[in-house]
Each structure stands twice: as structure tokens, then as C-alpha cells.
Fold each of these.
Amino acid sequence: MRTGADYREAMRDGRRVFVMGAGRVDDVTTHPATAAMIDEYVRWYDRHADPAWQNIVLGPGATPVSFTLPQSSDDLVRMGKSYAATTFPTAGNVTHTPAYGHIIAMGMLIATHEHGHAESIARAKSYREMIAKTGRFLTFCGGAPPLGIRLNPDPAQRAALKIMKETDAGLILSGRVGMHTSPAYAEDVYIGSLNGVVIDGHPASFVVPVGGKGVTTLCRKAAVRDPNKFNSPLSSRFDELDGQMWLDDVFVPWEHVFLVDPGPEAIARYLLWHHLYGWLAKAEFTLGLALALTHAIGLKEHEPTVEYIVDIVTEVATVRACLTASERDPVFTPEGYCTPNYQHLMPGGIAILRAHQRISEILRALPGSSLVVMPTDSDLADPEIGAGLEECFGGAGYTALQRAALLQLAWDHVASGLDGRESSFELHASGGIPAWRGRLRRAFDRYNELANGVLTALDLQMPEIDLTSIKDRPLAPRRVNTAPAPEKAR
């Protein structure tokens, strides 16, 4: 496993990165918009050499759990525990890590097997092995173009990418690819088959280096944060800066070209599992904050507050149970790869998506007015008002500074720009409740068994029921942006 210092040095690869509102980023390891996240990824790598973490992030033979190719339920359980432990400290805000990159590569491998193109299978196998050996950081994009390109009046110009030239060594691509996560911090981006390139009748996908010649990464504006880290303990550290990728005559070797079925579902086989761990981390962090505040503001004997706590516990326990079931009752591919069972995973995602706003509202409501009018560390140090603030916020075993730190943490968690980003992006990235319901509908395999099973309770000959059509219905199609018709000349 590489060290955090190795990763930091790899980020100085001449990459061309822009952050909306902040302009060109010359060095992502030092720029104010990106340096804190680089530090977080450095910590992620360095945990593998930290004795306090090794029983979580290392498996048999001291191999990194995050780079396991799972072939048993025990492998999935071990990986899941690692995801849970490493995601919780970020309150679920760091959704894409090198561990996430590896499961993208695992999804690529399965997707190429399903498509059946032998060369692509070999390429995906080789690339995944390289990721596991080096710890190289990969992130994911479905491949769809940005809005303006989708609205081009010429349908032939609506694809994200175009082949500019084909050589014996590879392809030269140009185009604009829509949103993906942590592009400023990753080393490679997987561009999925929604990019519009077709090779010999096969939808094509690609791996492109962020620091490659002709590659430009454009990140969204940074989340609004207080410059005082006491007031922004989360948003000052965890901002993944989702972005676009522009390719201008970028060379992609054949080794990084993968022919797969259309759509991202096969690639996402493991990603949704990781998404749910991220959402669980946010819910568990919310529960932890609610418990800490309940103690700090003297409400542990207050029955309505305890009921609030039980509401969050219920949601957390539901998701935990779904994750455990998905890992303990897995699905195996024909090649022997072990994957989480969607019949159990999808209900967990639907439950937490429905509960997300309610959980956040509980944490906003629990502290009452103290979450609105709360001091900062500089206020408490102010000679004119510090003593009065100590009187207002201190006492019963807590200093005003300690209570204020908890309140600021809660505010940053559920009332900041960071929380808004998480709410909007994660619903978009995973497809939202309709997509999770569609996946569950297709994964559930007991329609006929249960329907015909109840007929045995009747002392009557009944026709055999076949409800296969429920399972076989396709997922909801991606929404299509309609370009306005060109105006007629006057």
C-alpha cells in the first residue's frame, strides 16, 4: 500500500484543474479550495500503517481490505466493516475514496464479463489488479454530456465524446463529460458507456488520467464555509468538489478501452452498496450528535427528546440490518465474484432516502434556540462579552467552549452548505427513490413463489400464477432533455 506522502506527490502531476468562482488551481495540495481534502485522503492511505486501524483496514496476510476482490460472504462483511469505520469520521461526506475506486474497477470487471468481449475482460482484469497493487485512485462518471450539449439542436452533436482518430496504439478522444465526484483528487476517471462512443457496434467506456495531456477538470464552487474552523469543523475539511471533465485530443490506449452493455447499472453493482454505507455514516453521525447534545443540554430524562433519539435509532438499525443481510445472503456471478444482494440492499436505501430529511430535522430541533444563537471561540475569548457568554452557555459539567463546539458541529452537519450539497448530490448520483425501487423490483425473485403459495390455502383448483413481467420490466429510462426547435427565418 502506498503512503499518504506517495499519494500527495502523485497529485503534483501537472493536472489542469479549475474551481468555479476561484479560477485555476495550480497545485491541489496547497490551494485553499482543495488542500484540506488532499489531507483527508493522505490520512486514508496512512491508516493502513496505523496500528490502531490495522484490524479494520487490513485483512488476512496484512492485505488492504479495500482492495479485496470478494469471493465470499466473509469478504463482503470485512469490506463493509472497513467502509463503515472509515466513512463515519467524515460524517458520510467523503463518499469517494480509493476504496470506492477499487469497487468501480470491480464493477468494470463484472460488466465486461456480462458483455462478453474477451479483450475487454482481459483489460478490466489487468486494470483492477493494477489498482489493487498500487492503490491508484479511480473515480466514476456515467459518461453523459453536460446540459448544453444535450440540448444541441443537431442530434448528431449530442454525444459527450467523439473519436477524433484511431491508431494501432489507441484512440484520440475529444468532448465534454458531465458530473462526477472528487475529480480534483483522483488519478483516473472511468467514463461510462453513456458517453456516446460506439466501437464495432459495442458501447465503449474509458479510463482517462486526470493529469493527462489535453484533460481539463472543472469543479463546482466550493461549499460555503466559515474561515474559522471552530465554526466549520466539517465543511472546512470535507468538500469533494464534484465536477466535469473536458477532453481535447486526449490519447487513450486500447488497454483503457472497455466494451460494455449500455448504461451504468452493471458498473454500479458495488457502488450502491458503498453509497448506503455513506448514508448510514451520516445517519449514525447524526445520532451520535443527537446523543451528545441530549447529554450536554440536560435532556436525557426528557421523554419527547428520548423519542426523537429512538426515531433515529430505528432508521439506523434498519439500514444496518439491510446491509448485513445483503452481505450474509450474497449473489455470486458465474465467474465466482461475490456481490451484495439487492433484495436486501435496496430496501435499506429506500428507507434512508425517505428518512433523510426527518433525521436532519430532529437534530436541528433538538437543541432549540441554542443552535441559532451560539458563540464562537473568538466570542468566548472576547474580554467584553466572554464572561457573559460563559454564564449563558457553561455549567453542569460543560464549559461554554465545549457546548459551543458541539453546537457548531451540529450546525455544520445539518444546516450548512455542505449538508445541502450532500442532500442534492447523493439523491442525483444514485438515481433517487424511483431508481432504488426499480432495482428492488428487478432483484426480488419471489413473486411467483408467494402468489402461488397462498393458493395452497384454498381447497380449490386454481390457475398457476406467472408474475414474471413485474420483475422483467425495464428500469425507468433516463430523462431526456428536449432541445428547442430552431426558429424559422423571418
Amino acid sequence: MLHALAVPDRSLAGAQSLLQQELDDITDPQRRRILLLVGSYAEATHAGNYLNNQPEWAGKVTVLVADDTDLDHSWSTLPAHHGRRYLRRGEIATFPDAGGQLLIAPLLAVERGHNIVTPGGKAAIGSAYFLARPHHRPDDITLATQAINDWAVRQYRSSGQQFQQLVLAQGTPDKAGVRFR
């Protein structure tokens, strides 16, 4: 997904990546930044490494790391950090001052209460891309199963005692279960 968004078609002279096109479409130069939301800090680091290895994005990427990350130690354990910027979660409001165009952050780390604004109080990020799926996959039946279970519990607890009457009318728990299903 990152490749499709960030790397231009190198067979076409002057081609731009989709991310660069998006940045160019942001008319306010103070907001010409993109937030890339991923699933975890590890994914953020991986995405940052990938993008910083692309000539178009080298040095333009800021990766959000956990507050307790030891950046002194991390500099030696994270892959080469030439031009790469790391920003602790608690310092996210300083992103506009960091100079990067792309902020890569875990979805749950950037939540309500984090205002990323310019000195004038204007939103500093002009666009956001979700590289993580905040909802279940379409073929995942977990949500449907939970909804059915919720419905069954509500039927059991209903004040009209319809469930209890159904069970008594069937004669056995097995027959009652089949009938309820």
C-alpha cells in the first residue's frame, strides 16, 4: 500500500506519487502535511524506514514513537537514521515545528485530545490516510456473531418472559434451543 501511495511510476518522466499529488493539492502551505495512520508503533517504524529509503521522501518523514522509547538506545537499534525524525507521543503537538511532511503514527496513539496545530491555531495536517483497518474485515463474522449473541441475551432478559415461555412450551432444553435458533 505504501509503495502504491508513495512511489511514482518511475517509467514516466516527471511522474509524481499519489502522496505528492495530495500534498500539492493542499492549498494552504501551513497545512501541507499528511498523517499516515498505522496499526502499531512497530508498523510506524517499518513504514518510516520504507519511506525514508525512497528518494522522494528521505528526510521528510517523522515517525511517532512511544513516550517511554529510549531514543538514545533506539538510534542504535533502529535502522540507519539519516534524515529520519522520531517524535515521542507526548510531543506530537510539536510536529509542525519538526519540518517533516509525513507523520506516521499508530491509530490509537493519535486520538482525541491531541491537537496538532500551527502557531496560529490552524490544523497543521491537511490530509490523513488510514493504512490500518479500524474496522473488521468484510469477511470477518466476529461482528455479526457478537450482534446475534447480543440479540439472544436481550431476548432472554426481556420483561415479557417470551423466552421462558418458549422453553416451557418445547418440553426439553434441546428442543427449546433448536426452536430458538
Amino acid sequence: MTLEIGITFTILIIAIVLFITEFVRIDLVALGVLVALALTGVVTTEQSVAGFSNPAVITVWAMFILSAGLTRTGVSGYIGNQLLRFAGGGEGKLIAVLMTLTALLSSFMNNIGVAAMFLPITMDVARRTRHHVSRLLLPMAYGSLLGGLILLIGTPSNLIVRDALREAGLRPFAMFDFTIGGLIILVLSVAYVALIGRRFLPIHESVEPMAANQLNDEEAHDRYSLEERLANLIVPAGSPLVGKTLGESRIGLALGLNVLSIRRSRGRRIPAKPDVRIEEGDRLLILGRLNRIEDLAANPIITIEEKVKASTGLISKNIGLAEATVTENGVLAGRSLAEVEFRAKYGLNVLAFQRNGDIVRTDIRSITLEPGDRLLLQGSKIQFELLSDSDGVVAISAEKADEYGLSEQLLLANVPEGSILVGQTLAESRLGAAFGLSALAVARENGDWAMPEAELTLKAGDRLIIGGQPQDIEVIKGLSSFEVDRNVDVEREQLEFGSLEIVDVMLSPY
């Protein structure tokens, strides 16, 4: 035995061991074999990469692209679902249709891709027709393999043989040389499995998804630990949330909780719809991480200094107020603040908007601005200079700003000890997304007011000027007023009530 043969056998044995053990990824092992053969001199550098230009390799590569395209666009899934509808409920007919369909698709697609695509379809059909999935998966796999016998591109080995014939000077296989024989084998195989072979298929009880009649099972609790994430929120008398709808309460946005159902004080249970109004004594069954609501119940998020005129803090040596007028040639004319990305570009807050004497203080970002519109701006005095001269920016006093009715939407707030905001940045606090509030200015030990950055980490004792609606502050107070009862005895009707269902979902690779 020559040295080259010994090296080749050594590399082959190592590759086989790695393929079997899967200690290293299969694709890396294949590339490692290529590199090892080239480095040891068994093949030349040109020979080691010559396979990448082989028509068979390129054709297989194209088949994978075609398979992925048909799968991701949903074409193959749609065809499969539609054709499987004609299979009816009989097991033999279902097996015949399933094998034929997968064989026809795998004749021009990669058979592994077809099998992967039909795996969830087959399992869903088995569930809907109440057949054992173990008796359908094997015929489906057979069908995907039989498709390789119908067309030349059905399997890579056909292409390799075709190229070998061409290199030997013989007539290579054509696209449909296998078709007649492949179809005969397919028909005989389908008939055998559907009529005779299915009697030998295994019967294995499949694990059913978590269904409504299984939610009380101990296995369901062990799998999802629902009891650790379920609680009742009790609405006390005098809570600011009484009379508000579930949507207005912001329980989901602010706390990341799902309200499953509501039990009234009189014992009646109602579905948790966004337009349902909260009443005193309601018990809200919630699902989610409970530490946030418990922290909120123990300590308020912010405290409000209601007697302090908040607008005075908007003007200091660092920040100020200004009024901008939109002109025909300005950067704002004909565009909305969102389109201009005004806050990110200029670092300024738009507190109010005035057009023809009408003042708007909410949902300003989406309004298309017109020449003559006036904007009340707040921010660093240096940032005002970034606006073009055509959009005239004039500094104004707090008294002038009061003409925009700021006192109705500005509040002076303190961050108390124990607040869930302590240690969080403004971006992490989600004051805007969760509570509909925006921090316009911040002051610390030295008492100087400054523009807050999104990365500013909040500390206990910070003073904030907050822009928002009074009802948003009421929501924060209301969320702090909940009483948390973690002793929940889960029953099926509590988790699945009205139009709400709980299902078990498996995510596909895509």
C-alpha cells in the first residue's frame, strides 16, 4: 500500500467517525476533508476545488434554491394543503394521496426539503383526521424518496452518473429517461403501501398538544409552570382605574401582563376585552412575570408635586423654550415631524402645535405641517441653531408658552426610593411607550435643569418635568393600587373563557 493510499484511508476513517459522532458539524467535516487532501498532497489545489464547477453540484445547488423558494413563498404548502383535502378520511386513500404528492414534488425539488416541508402538514392532517401520525410519516418519507426516480434532477446521484457517462464519451441521461420506469415504480409502491403495506405500519401514540381538557393535568403545569406566572389583581375601592377600560389601564403595555378573565365582585366571570370597564372589587386573572406588578404595588413609580408650576423648569441656563414658524421654503413644510425624524435630528421636543388659532398637544408627530403653522419647542439652546433660518425660531418666555395651555399637560414629578425606575435608563423605563409620558427635563442635586438623554440612568431623588395627559398619571397611580393575590387555583374555564384559547405551538425553523 502506497503512502497516498494510507493517507486517504486515514482521512476517510477520521471523516466517517466524525460523521457518525457528529462531534463536528457535517459541513465542516466535508470541508476539512477537502483541505486535508490538498495539504497532504493527495490531490492538487486545482483538483481539490474542481468539484465546485461540476454541473451536478451546480444543479443540486439550484435545486436547493428552488426548494427554498417554493417553501418560503408558501406555494408548496398551499398546493399540499389543497390536494390533501381530497384525501377524505380513509387511511388508505390518505396514504396514497400523500405519497403521490410528495413524490411529484420531490421529482424536481430536493427530497429532504420536501420531507421537511410536509412534516408539519402530515402531523396536522393526522390530528384533524384522528389517524396515528406514525402511520403517515413513513409513507410520506417513502414518497419523497420515490420522486427521485421520475426526473433526472430528482436526486444528485442521477446527475453524477450523467456526468460520468458524458466524460466517458457515452450518451448521457436526458431529463425524462427515468420517467416511465419511475412512474411505474411509484404506482406499484403506492398501491402496495395503501392496500397491503399499511397493515405493517407502526402504531405509536403521539403526544397531543396542550388542549382545553388537559390544562388541569400535572404534566401541563410541569411543562409550562403556569402556576408561577398566574395571579389575581384585586381592584380596591377608590382606585383611579375604576371606570377605565382595560385598554386604558395599560396593564399589558406597562407591565407586560395578559389579562385572561375578570371576576366581578358578585361572582360573575366576564371575558377580558379591551373595552370592558373596570369596577371596584374586580379580580383580574393575569398571566406573566409578576415581579414588576409586585414591585409597583410596594413602591410608587413617581410622586407628583401638584402645587408646583412645572413650566418654570423648562427654562434654565441649559434649556429653553422657542417658537418656530413653518415657512414655504423651510425644512418642515409639507412634511410631518415623523418624516423629518425631528426629535432624533434636532434633539428638540415639540410640546404643542398651533394652526389658525387651534392648539393641538397630542399626536403631533403624524400631522403634515403647512406654512404658517407654529410649533412650541423645548430643548437645549444650542440645538435651536440647527434649524434653518427659513423656519424662524424665536425664544419665548414661560408666560408666552402658557398661551399653548402647557399647564394642562406638564407635571413635576419625583423618583422616590424603591421605584422600579431607579437604575433604569429613560429608554428602559418605557415612560412613553408604556405610560404615554415623556420626560422633558431632569434636575439632580445641584438643582439645574437639563435635557434628559435616552441613556440617562435614573436615580432616587431625581426631579422630572413630565409631559402627558392627566389620565396617564391616574393610570400610574391606579397600577400602584392593585392588591396581588398569588394563590390561584387554576381551572380550565378560567384560562379558556369567551373567545380566549390556550394552545401549544411549535415554531418552524423559519
